[in-house]
Amino acid sequence: MPKSKRNRQVTLSKTKKKGRDHKETIVNGIKEAAEKYACVYVFSFENMRNQKFKEFREQLKSSSRFFLGSNKVMQVALGRSAADEISPGLHKVSKLLRGDAGMFFTNLSKEEVERLFKEFEENDFARTGSIATEKVDLKEGPLEQFTHEMEPFLRKQGMPVRLNKGVVELVSDFVVCEEGKPLSPEAARLLRLMAIKMATFRLHLICRWSPDEFELYIDGPDESDVECS
């Protein structure tokens, strides 16, 4: 009789978790970067694409360093108040680490950083749950962009299709997605199949800090609000 998989032993010592050591490594890295680089920026991101971000990071590694991860850990590294900040004014940066955010330490000029972040953009296929940027619908009739082998797959995505003399045919009008509404898994697959890209990976500057200056790039809290919050 075969052994039950439920009875298999698992060696817990082989599993790895991001625990205290990992957090301390991040904190120490941020403290070192604060001493090494001339200024630091907080940035937000939308529709993150890891490979594209990795390429951007590699492009700038000779002059800069990025940090992404737990906002709480990054805040601890900088200091959450004027009493425990590692350099004067860095607690203002700490308070702006919210949501999908990261830090960019650099020796590049302000003008160069602003140009790089403004120009950075990557279009990609939207994922499940993303908001559709336009309505996509297909009209009844032959769908010559799809081969006959795709007909079973299209039916699984909810499309009312059939084969008519080897040609995929839509038997009634079909809405793939509605503008402003979240994409279903089926809609995301169909948009990819139709080569329609609705996601844009962007980075947005939130603030800039240097020993002599603190600057906000976003509307909302002014400098006094950041100081007092």
UniProtKB/TrEMBL annotation:
- UniProt-listed InterPro entries: Mrt4, Ribosomal_uL10, Ribosomal_uL10-like_insert, Ribosomal_uL10-like_insert_sf, Ribosomal_uL10-like_sf, Ribosome_Assembly_uL10
At the highest ranks, the source species' classification is: Eukaryota, Viridiplantae, Streptophyta, Embryophyta, Tracheophyta
Keywords per UniProt: Cytoplasm, Nucleus, Ribosome biogenesis
Q: Which Gene3D superfamilies match?
A: 3.30.70.1730, 3.90.105.20
GO CC annotation terms, alphabetical: cytoplasm; nucleolus; preribosome, large subunit precursor
Describe the task this protein carries out.
Ribosomal protein P0 is the functional equivalent of E.coli protein L10.
Q: Where in the cell is it found?
A: Cytoplasm; Nucleus, Nucleolus
Q: Taking every annotated instance into account, which residue ranges of this chain make up the domain Large ribosomal subunit protein uL10-like insertion?
A: 126-196
Its predominant location is cytoplasm
Outline the subunit composition.
Associates with the pre-60S ribosomal particle.
Keyword check for Nucleus: yes
For this chain, the family text in UniProt reads:
Belongs to the universal ribosomal protein uL10 family.
SUPFAM superfamilies linked = Ribosomal protein L10-like
Q: Sorted alphabetically, which CDD domains does this protein's record hold?
A: Ribosomal_P0_like
Q: Which terms in the Gene Ontology molecular function aspect does this entry carry? A: RNA binding
Region annotated Disordered sits at: 1-23
Protein name according to UniProt: Ribosome assembly factor mrt4
